[in-house]
Amino acid sequence: MCQSCVEWGQVSQWLYDVIGAFCERYAEGDPYYGFGHIVLDDYNVETYHIQWCLNEATREGKLYEAEVESFLKWMLTISDEERHG
User: Which pTM was predicted?
Assistant: First the structure.
């Protein structure tokens, strides 16, 4: 996890906490997020990055676990401004 990402304004504290909770829960199974690691591990939370991850997974036929895909789609319902705090 990248607490400094919060300090640098890359991700809001509340979203950092939510991503962390999701990853902890998901890590109990397969910790591989596919293209989603760009968002979930690297905190590139802009709409562009989230949409790119979803598009690439579909294009390359590397579908996510339903939980990861749902989480990324949920993140798209939050504005970029809210994601950065």
Answer: 0.81
List of residues 6+ apart from 64 with CB closer than 8 A: 33, 34, 35, 36, 57, 72
Q: State whether residue 1 is helix, strand or coil.
A: coil
Contact assessment for residue 71 and residue 35, using Cβ atoms and an 8 Å cutoff:
no
At 36-71, the pLDDT tens digits run 888 988 889 999 999 998 888 777 666 566 778 889
